[in-house]
Amino acid sequence: MLLSGKVAVITGCNRGIGKAITTVFAKQGANIIACARKSTVEFESYLTNLQNETGVLITPVYFDISKEDEVKLAIEEIRNLFSTIDILVNNAGIAGDTIYQMTTMETLEEKMKVNFYGPFLLTQYITKLMRKSTAASIVNITSIAADDSYKGMISYTASKAAFNAFTKTIANELGNVNIRVNAIAPGFTETDMVSNAITNKEFLTQLQSHLALKRLARPEEIANSVLFLASDLSSYITGQILRVDGGLFND
């Protein structure tokens, strides 16, 4: 029960890595504000079942991370639920892209709004509620693409590179108020996002041949890494970007 009694805000909870993080955190005792863009019967049922299974409090909050007015309304809702937040996981994001010469400003703006601007604004507000915590932690979900610069992913990699810089900078600024800030950079993971982005099975097979572990990550493996950085096990770690990529070697 590494997170017993703590309150965590997690974005992008309705699928993939975000859903796995929500499950792992609940099983470790955290009360959760589960953020998603919209409500579905499936998502509400999942949260209810998880709450009944673990005995923690799980409250959904719905908003579009790319829209400033919705983020502000969500913050008011969160503030009314809890006066203190211990953990923030900025997981919500979108992939999919085009080669540089074909990338429009609309595409670039869309990625930046969801993957950087929105989390930037949300974090500004949430950190005000984290100052009362005795051991606060922010974990950003970025990507190995920010460093590895894959072709045809210019707006995605740019948004995640900005997120990396954001992580390191605010870690330096918030350390004096006892808020740690780190990021997880997942490699290729078994999620809908990756499946939709990589439809070429031959490319996927070739990709796995460059991984030391010869397989994609499972969402819960990424979630366990987030748990480490969110918990007191990493109490002296801040300003770090942790790659969780199964040993990716481009040899």
UniProtKB/TrEMBL annotation:
Belongs to the short-chain dehydrogenases/reductases (SDR) family. Keywords: Oxidoreductase. It comes from the Bacteria. SUPFAM superfamilies: NAD(P)-binding Rossmann-fold domains (SSF51735). This is 3-oxoacyl-ACP reductase. GO terms for biological process: bile acid metabolic process. PANTHER family: 3-OXOACYL-(ACYL-CARRIER-PROTEIN) REDUCTASE, 3-OXOACYL-[ACYL-CARRIER-PROTEIN] REDUCTASE FABG. The keyword Oxidoreductase applies. Gene3D superfamilies: NAD(P)-binding Rossmann-like Domain.
